[in-house]
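Box 4.2: Ligand-aware structure prediction
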Amino acid sequence: MKTVRFVDLGRQYLRLRTEILEKFDEISRSGDYILSREGAAFEQEFADYCGVPHAIGVGNGSDALLLSLLALGVGPGDEVVTVPNSFVASAWVIARTGARIVFCDTGEDMNMDPARLREAVTPKTKAVLPVHLTGRVADMDAILKVAREFNLRVVEDAAQAVGARRNGRRAGAFGDCAGFSLHPLKNLHVHGDGGVITTPDPDICAFLKKSRNHGLRNRDECEFWGMNSRLDEVQAAIARIKLPRLDEWNERFRTLAGRYRLGLEGVAGIPGEESGEEPVYHRFMIRHEQRDALQAHLAARGVETKVNYPIPLHLQPAAAGLGYREGDFPVAERLARTILSLPLYPELEEDDVDYVIETIKDFTRR
Ligand SMILES: *Cc1c(COP(=O)(O)O)cnc(C)c1O
């Protein structure tokens, strides 16, 4: 029996091993481990890649979102709207600022529904945090229209969408700020935790560079109480080695996703791609009414799959105080019951994808 693993990070490392080890050695000898050449160079290269004037390296993707909200002045008494079908960090970063989490339902594209966003806005709404789930950019034109109408700040959760485009613009190039994750499970990843913020605003950039570094203006003067959340030199150097290869890897994600789409058409619910969209398939998520049985069938035949994510955020124990109930967000709740993420990474072979397709077809024939 064949086995198809859900992720296989070691394979990417082996291709880049010499380059990474040489860099590690160089940095280790230099003694400059934090906030030095590699970090600054990566910030410039990442900003250029996204087509945004500024990028700021931080400790992880969650901090990227939290620091962005804080930089935009979100705090106690404010409300921030996000979606219920995301990783928990999309929600807790809002709570951490002291603001209230407000959810709005998603559309069939699994991303924020701009019409539902409009309904969720109140006089207290300060910001909106759309998520580009699975590497597919949300309908930002419509979301930005609502944001302009109600004077809301926009923070893109681009953790899953590095390199994705919509109407020619990259994820991270739409909002007042965008937070990216360099976590090992993301398309561009480092060997530990890492994150990046992009912003078009030089003042926000200057604020973020201080707030990630304790609020220090210089070595001795603390302008405001900040945080310690920096992208260290070794991680930045690894990100720099990988960034020039990202488009090629994302193309591979898209090629393999295309193979899945073709093979599974009419067999399971497959993600759509509208004109102007260029998703990067951080996840390839299918939908099936007998999801749990399908997952067990695949597992028994060596195919590892995951559910991202089985419990909607408004039904998490942590959300108990927010007053939401089952049935509040029917689209997101239905997604949580039917979605299944299939193995997908650049090192996966066509054979592997075909085996997964055949195994799913075999399930539906039963
Ligand atoms: C991964 C992820 C985050 C958090 O990123 P970390 O680097 O793990 O802190 C936030 N939002 C979404 C949608 C994510 O997938």
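In the box above, the bound molecule is pyridoxal-5'-phosphate. Residues 60-62, 86-87, 89-90, 131, 157, 159-160, 181, 183, 193, 195 surround pyridoxal-5'-phosphate (CB under 6 Å).
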